[in-house]
Amino acid sequence: MTEVLFRSDFTVSLVDVMGNDERVCQAARVSTVGAQSLDTGESGGLINFLMKNRHGSPFEHILMTWMITAPIFVWREYMRHRIASYNEQSARYMQLEPVFYVPGPDRAFIQEGKPGHYTFVQGPVEDYTWLVADIQEDCHYLYSKYERRIGRGIAKEVARITLPLNIYSSAYVTMNSRGLMNFLSLRTKHEDSMFPSYPQHEISVVGDQMEESFAHHSPLVHDAFVNNGRVCP
User: How many structural domains does the chain have?
Assistant: First the structure.
């Protein structure tokens, strides 16, 4: 049997960027100066005005692409956001590598409260140790069954059907900055958000890494997003 690997992190690699703060300003100014907008530069004041008053379309002219590796249960949350383009590796055509997610020791895993009004807290160390061992046991068993099926000539698209949701998969994700801000407003947790969000821990970690590259490449847009309560324009 192939060696089974376990990890608690995610890979978020920025592949490509088109547009920046200046492009947002050009797109906004074209309505009043036409083609002369190409000669204008960036303006933090204009960007903040657009964000504050929710003039969203100029922000669609920044486009970012990432290669992301995350567990399948995280990808299922991504797919709810139809404001992005996705191309994911296919387990119909390739054998998935035996790499599985296990919660890290900082991941709160005890749920307290009723549905719609609950929190997660750290559990006892012995419960965390048991949980990780139990997950690993499942992964070893199910991947061995997967390999056995493929070895018998079973089609990959059939052999895969009982693999657990914590197996890793990779995909290209492309969003414009307006869609990205919508995603971040829902899938990251920040105390200064005008509308609080309560995302699952794993997707919020991935979202935080995407936001880092967004802030680096479009600092004025990102600042305006944060300063206006993290509300998507």
Answer: 1
Phi, psi for residue 114 in degrees, rounded to 5: -95, 165
Q: If you average pLDDT over residues 205-228, what whole number do you get?
A: 98
Residue 118 inside a domain? The answer is no
Task: List, for residues 158-174, the tens digit of each pLDDT value.
Answer: 999 999 999 999 999 99
Alpha helices in the chain (DSSP H): 21-33, 44-52, 72-78, 125-151, 156-159, 177-187, 201-217, 219-227
pLDDT at 54: 95
Q: Is residue 20 part of a domain?
A: yes
For residue 177, the enclosing domain spans 5-103+168-227
Going by their DSSP bridges, the two strands 85-88 and 63-71 should be labelled as: unpaired
What separation in angstroms does the CA of 132 have from each of 101, 105, 112?
10, 10, 20
Q: What is the pTM of this model?
A: 0.93
Q: Which CATH number fits the domain that encloses residue 52?
A: 3.30.1360.170
Which residues are the active-site residues? 187
Please report whether residue 75 resides in a domain.
yes
**Distances from the Cα of 12 to the Cα of 6, 184, 197, 207, 210, angstroms:** 18, 15, 22, 9, 7
Q: Is the pLDDT of residue 6 over 90?
A: yes
